[in-house]
Specification:
The protein is an all-alpha fold and 287 residues long. 77% of the residues lie in helices and 0% in strands. The protein has 10 helices and no strands. Helix 1 runs antiparallel to helix 4. It is elongated. The termini are far apart.
Protein backbone atom coordinates (compact mmCIF):
# COMPACT_ATOMS: atom_id res chain seq x y z
CA UNK A 1 0.00 0.00 0.00
CA UNK A 2 2.80 2.40 0.85
CA UNK A 3 4.56 1.63 -2.42
CA UNK A 4 1.41 2.41 -4.41
CA UNK A 5 0.92 5.62 -2.45
CA UNK A 6 4.52 6.63 -3.03
CA UNK A 7 4.17 5.93 -6.75
CA UNK A 8 1.00 8.02 -6.87
CA UNK A 9 2.71 10.91 -5.07
CA UNK A 10 5.65 10.73 -7.50
CA UNK A 11 3.30 10.87 -10.48
CA UNK A 12 1.46 13.81 -8.91
CA UNK A 13 4.72 15.65 -8.25
CA UNK A 14 5.81 15.00 -11.84
CA UNK A 15 2.48 16.27 -13.14
CA UNK A 16 2.72 19.41 -11.01
CA UNK A 17 6.24 20.06 -12.26
CA UNK A 18 5.12 19.66 -15.86
CA UNK A 19 2.21 22.01 -15.27
CA UNK A 20 4.51 24.62 -13.73
CA UNK A 21 6.92 24.40 -16.67
CA UNK A 22 4.05 24.57 -19.16
CA UNK A 23 2.56 27.55 -17.33
CA UNK A 24 5.88 29.41 -17.35
CA UNK A 25 6.30 28.63 -21.05
CA UNK A 26 2.84 30.03 -21.82
CA UNK A 27 3.57 33.19 -19.83
CA UNK A 28 6.89 33.73 -21.62
CA UNK A 29 5.26 33.05 -24.99
CA UNK A 30 2.45 35.55 -24.38
CA UNK A 31 4.87 38.18 -23.11
CA UNK A 32 7.20 37.82 -26.10
CA UNK A 33 4.30 37.63 -28.56
CA UNK A 34 2.59 40.80 -27.29
CA UNK A 35 5.86 42.69 -26.95
CA UNK A 36 7.02 41.74 -30.47
CA UNK A 37 3.62 42.49 -31.98
CA UNK A 38 3.58 45.96 -30.44
CA UNK A 39 7.16 46.56 -31.54
CA UNK A 40 6.36 45.62 -35.16
CA UNK A 41 3.30 47.88 -35.22
CA UNK A 42 5.29 50.74 -33.73
CA UNK A 43 8.03 50.19 -36.32
CA UNK A 44 5.52 50.34 -39.17
CA UNK A 45 3.91 53.49 -37.74
CA UNK A 46 7.33 55.14 -37.31
CA UNK A 47 8.26 54.30 -40.90
CA UNK A 48 4.98 55.75 -42.14
CA UNK A 49 5.61 58.96 -40.21
CA UNK A 50 9.10 59.28 -41.71
CA UNK A 51 7.66 58.80 -45.19
CA UNK A 52 5.02 61.47 -44.63
CA UNK A 53 7.54 63.99 -43.28
CA UNK A 54 9.90 63.33 -46.17
CA UNK A 55 7.15 63.60 -48.79
CA UNK A 56 5.92 66.88 -47.27
CA UNK A 57 9.38 68.46 -47.70
CA UNK A 58 9.93 66.96 -51.14
CA UNK A 59 6.52 68.05 -52.46
CA UNK A 60 6.97 71.66 -51.37
CA UNK A 61 10.38 71.81 -53.01
CA UNK A 62 9.16 70.09 -56.17
CA UNK A 63 6.35 72.61 -56.62
CA UNK A 64 8.71 75.59 -56.51
CA UNK A 65 11.28 73.66 -58.54
CA UNK A 66 8.79 73.10 -61.36
CA UNK A 67 7.96 76.81 -61.44
CA UNK A 68 11.65 77.65 -61.54
CA UNK A 69 12.28 75.32 -64.50
CA UNK A 70 9.49 77.03 -66.44
CA UNK A 71 10.68 80.49 -65.45
CA UNK A 72 14.27 79.71 -66.45
CA UNK A 73 13.22 79.39 -70.09
CA UNK A 74 12.13 83.04 -70.12
CA UNK A 75 15.13 84.30 -68.16
CA UNK A 76 13.36 84.98 -64.87
CA UNK A 77 15.49 85.35 -61.79
CA UNK A 78 15.76 82.40 -59.43
CA UNK A 79 13.66 82.85 -56.28
CA UNK A 80 15.36 82.59 -52.89
CA UNK A 81 12.47 80.37 -51.74
CA UNK A 82 13.75 77.50 -53.88
CA UNK A 83 17.15 77.46 -52.20
CA UNK A 84 15.50 77.65 -48.80
CA UNK A 85 13.23 74.71 -49.55
CA UNK A 86 16.13 72.68 -50.91
CA UNK A 87 18.05 73.36 -47.73
CA UNK A 88 15.04 72.12 -45.74
CA UNK A 89 14.90 68.98 -47.89
CA UNK A 90 18.43 68.13 -46.77
CA UNK A 91 16.96 67.51 -43.30
CA UNK A 92 14.37 65.02 -44.63
CA UNK A 93 14.43 61.81 -42.57
CA UNK A 94 14.75 59.56 -45.64
CA UNK A 95 17.12 61.74 -47.64
CA UNK A 96 19.37 59.64 -49.89
CA UNK A 97 23.06 60.43 -50.39
CA UNK A 98 22.55 60.78 -54.15
CA UNK A 99 19.81 63.39 -53.79
CA UNK A 100 21.79 65.21 -51.12
CA UNK A 101 24.80 65.45 -53.43
CA UNK A 102 22.61 66.69 -56.27
CA UNK A 103 21.10 69.42 -54.07
CA UNK A 104 24.58 70.52 -52.93
CA UNK A 105 25.82 70.57 -56.52
CA UNK A 106 22.94 72.75 -57.66
CA UNK A 107 23.19 75.19 -54.75
CA UNK A 108 26.92 75.47 -55.36
CA UNK A 109 26.80 75.98 -59.15
CA UNK A 110 23.24 77.30 -59.81
CA UNK A 111 23.35 75.82 -63.30
CA UNK A 112 20.20 75.15 -65.35
CA UNK A 113 21.37 71.66 -66.32
CA UNK A 114 21.75 70.87 -62.63
CA UNK A 115 18.25 72.20 -62.09
CA UNK A 116 16.81 69.78 -64.64
CA UNK A 117 18.74 66.84 -63.19
CA UNK A 118 17.60 67.78 -59.71
CA UNK A 119 13.98 67.99 -60.82
CA UNK A 120 14.12 64.52 -62.39
CA UNK A 121 15.85 62.95 -59.40
CA UNK A 122 13.48 64.57 -56.92
CA UNK A 123 10.46 63.50 -58.96
CA UNK A 124 11.75 59.92 -59.10
CA UNK A 125 12.36 59.95 -55.35
CA UNK A 126 8.86 61.29 -54.65
CA UNK A 127 7.24 58.55 -56.73
CA UNK A 128 9.37 55.90 -55.00
CA UNK A 129 8.39 57.13 -51.53
CA UNK A 130 4.72 57.42 -52.52
CA UNK A 131 4.75 53.81 -53.71
CA UNK A 132 6.39 52.68 -50.46
CA UNK A 133 3.83 54.64 -48.46
CA UNK A 134 0.87 53.17 -50.34
CA UNK A 135 2.20 49.63 -49.91
CA UNK A 136 2.74 50.20 -46.18
CA UNK A 137 -0.73 51.70 -45.69
CA UNK A 138 -2.32 48.80 -47.60
CA UNK A 139 -0.50 46.30 -45.39
CA UNK A 140 -1.70 48.09 -42.26
CA UNK A 141 -5.29 48.91 -43.20
CA UNK A 142 -6.23 46.25 -45.74
CA UNK A 143 -3.79 43.33 -45.63
CA UNK A 144 -4.27 40.30 -47.83
CA UNK A 145 -4.68 36.73 -46.62
CA UNK A 146 -0.97 35.95 -46.79
CA UNK A 147 0.02 39.20 -45.11
CA UNK A 148 -2.54 38.71 -42.34
CA UNK A 149 -1.33 35.17 -41.68
CA UNK A 150 2.30 36.30 -41.66
CA UNK A 151 1.48 39.13 -39.23
CA UNK A 152 -0.18 36.58 -36.96
CA UNK A 153 2.72 34.12 -36.75
CA UNK A 154 5.67 36.52 -36.99
CA UNK A 155 5.49 37.70 -33.36
CA UNK A 156 5.91 34.06 -32.30
CA UNK A 157 9.38 33.90 -33.89
CA UNK A 158 11.27 35.22 -30.80
CA UNK A 159 9.72 32.52 -28.62
CA UNK A 160 10.57 29.86 -31.21
CA UNK A 161 14.17 31.13 -31.29
CA UNK A 162 14.29 30.94 -27.48
CA UNK A 163 13.00 27.35 -27.51
CA UNK A 164 15.56 26.36 -30.14
CA UNK A 165 18.36 27.93 -28.11
CA UNK A 166 17.33 25.97 -25.02
CA UNK A 167 17.13 22.81 -27.12
CA UNK A 168 20.71 23.24 -28.40
CA UNK A 169 22.02 23.53 -24.83
CA UNK A 170 20.02 20.47 -23.75
CA UNK A 171 21.47 18.64 -26.74
CA UNK A 172 24.97 19.63 -25.59
CA UNK A 173 24.28 18.35 -22.08
CA UNK A 174 22.85 15.07 -23.34
CA UNK A 175 25.80 14.67 -25.69
CA UNK A 176 28.28 14.87 -22.83
CA UNK A 177 26.14 12.51 -20.72
CA UNK A 178 25.82 9.90 -23.45
CA UNK A 179 29.42 10.00 -24.66
CA UNK A 180 31.12 10.53 -21.31
CA UNK A 181 33.67 12.68 -23.15
CA UNK A 182 36.36 14.47 -21.20
CA UNK A 183 36.51 18.25 -21.17
CA UNK A 184 39.63 18.22 -23.35
CA UNK A 185 38.91 15.73 -26.09
CA UNK A 186 38.01 15.66 -29.77
CA UNK A 187 34.44 14.62 -28.97
CA UNK A 188 34.12 17.59 -26.63
CA UNK A 189 35.32 19.87 -29.43
CA UNK A 190 32.75 18.37 -31.79
CA UNK A 191 29.96 18.90 -29.28
CA UNK A 192 30.89 22.52 -28.66
CA UNK A 193 31.31 23.32 -32.37
CA UNK A 194 27.90 21.80 -33.05
CA UNK A 195 26.41 24.04 -30.36
CA UNK A 196 28.07 27.18 -31.77
CA UNK A 197 27.03 26.25 -35.32
CA UNK A 198 23.39 25.67 -34.33
CA UNK A 199 23.27 28.89 -32.30
CA UNK A 200 24.68 30.81 -35.26
CA UNK A 201 22.10 29.23 -37.57
CA UNK A 202 19.30 30.17 -35.18
CA UNK A 203 20.58 33.75 -34.91
CA UNK A 204 20.88 34.22 -38.68
CA UNK A 205 17.49 32.64 -39.32
CA UNK A 206 15.94 34.94 -36.72
CA UNK A 207 17.53 37.93 -38.45
CA UNK A 208 16.27 36.81 -41.87
CA UNK A 209 12.68 36.56 -40.60
CA UNK A 210 12.60 39.68 -38.44
CA UNK A 211 14.59 42.09 -40.64
CA UNK A 212 12.32 44.53 -42.49
CA UNK A 213 14.72 46.18 -44.92
CA UNK A 214 13.83 45.96 -48.58
CA UNK A 215 16.89 47.56 -50.16
CA UNK A 216 19.23 45.57 -52.39
CA UNK A 217 22.06 45.12 -49.84
CA UNK A 218 19.52 43.95 -47.26
CA UNK A 219 18.17 41.29 -49.63
CA UNK A 220 21.65 40.02 -50.46
CA UNK A 221 22.65 39.88 -46.81
CA UNK A 222 19.49 38.02 -45.88
CA UNK A 223 20.13 35.50 -48.66
CA UNK A 224 23.65 34.91 -47.35
CA UNK A 225 22.32 34.57 -43.78
CA UNK A 226 19.75 32.05 -45.01
CA UNK A 227 22.51 30.00 -46.65
CA UNK A 228 24.53 30.06 -43.40
CA UNK A 229 21.49 28.84 -41.50
CA UNK A 230 20.75 26.12 -44.08
CA UNK A 231 24.30 24.76 -43.82
CA UNK A 232 23.49 23.72 -40.23
CA UNK A 233 21.16 21.05 -41.65
CA UNK A 234 24.32 19.09 -42.50
CA UNK A 235 24.57 18.22 -38.79
CA UNK A 236 22.12 15.44 -39.64
CA UNK A 237 25.12 13.64 -41.13
CA UNK A 238 26.57 13.12 -37.67
CA UNK A 239 28.61 14.71 -34.93
CA UNK A 240 31.92 14.21 -36.73
CA UNK A 241 30.93 16.78 -39.36
CA UNK A 242 30.37 19.57 -36.81
CA UNK A 243 33.82 21.26 -37.00
CA UNK A 244 33.74 21.32 -40.79
CA UNK A 245 30.20 22.71 -40.87
CA UNK A 246 31.20 25.50 -38.50
CA UNK A 247 34.22 26.25 -40.69
CA UNK A 248 31.99 26.57 -43.77
CA UNK A 249 29.65 28.90 -41.88
CA UNK A 250 32.61 31.02 -40.79
CA UNK A 251 33.87 31.31 -44.38
CA UNK A 252 30.41 32.36 -45.56
CA UNK A 253 30.20 34.91 -42.73
CA UNK A 254 33.56 36.43 -43.68
CA UNK A 255 32.45 36.49 -47.32
CA UNK A 256 29.67 38.86 -46.27
CA UNK A 257 32.20 41.59 -45.52
CA UNK A 258 33.21 41.56 -49.20
CA UNK A 259 29.62 41.57 -50.40
CA UNK A 260 29.26 45.03 -51.90
CA UNK A 261 26.44 45.31 -54.46
CA UNK A 262 27.27 47.24 -57.60
CA UNK A 263 25.38 50.56 -57.59
CA UNK A 264 22.72 51.04 -60.21
CA UNK A 265 23.30 53.44 -63.08
CA UNK A 266 21.27 56.22 -61.46
CA UNK A 267 23.26 55.88 -58.21
CA UNK A 268 26.68 56.16 -59.84
CA UNK A 269 28.62 59.42 -59.46
CA UNK A 270 27.71 62.08 -61.99
CA UNK A 271 29.48 65.22 -63.09
CA UNK A 272 29.53 67.51 -60.07
CA UNK A 273 29.17 64.63 -57.61
CA UNK A 274 31.35 65.13 -54.55
CA UNK A 275 33.35 61.97 -55.35
CA UNK A 276 34.05 63.16 -58.88
CA UNK A 277 34.92 66.64 -57.61
CA UNK A 278 37.33 65.23 -55.04
CA UNK A 279 38.99 63.03 -57.66
CA UNK A 280 39.45 66.02 -59.95
CA UNK A 281 40.91 68.10 -57.15
CA UNK A 282 43.32 65.34 -56.18
CA UNK A 283 44.33 64.58 -59.80
CA UNK A 284 44.31 67.92 -61.68
CA UNK A 285 46.59 66.55 -64.40
CA UNK A 286 43.92 64.07 -65.49
CA UNK A 287 41.45 66.79 -66.40
Amino acid sequence: MSLALQAGLDRLAGTESNLIVAGLAVIVFLWLYIRTSRSLRAEAAARLELLQRTLALYSRAQGVLGEEVEAAHVGAQEPDQLVQLLQECKAAPLMTPELLDMIDAYIRERDFSRLLMLQKMLDREIHRRIHEQSVLIRKIDNPGWGTSFWRMIRPAVPFAALVLTLYWFIQLYNGFQDSGAAALSWTSLELWTRLISCLAATLFLYWVIMDTRRDTPGILYRLLALIIAAVALLHLLGLTAAPYILAVQLVLFLFGFNLNPKPSRRNRPYAGHREVTQDNEENPKDR
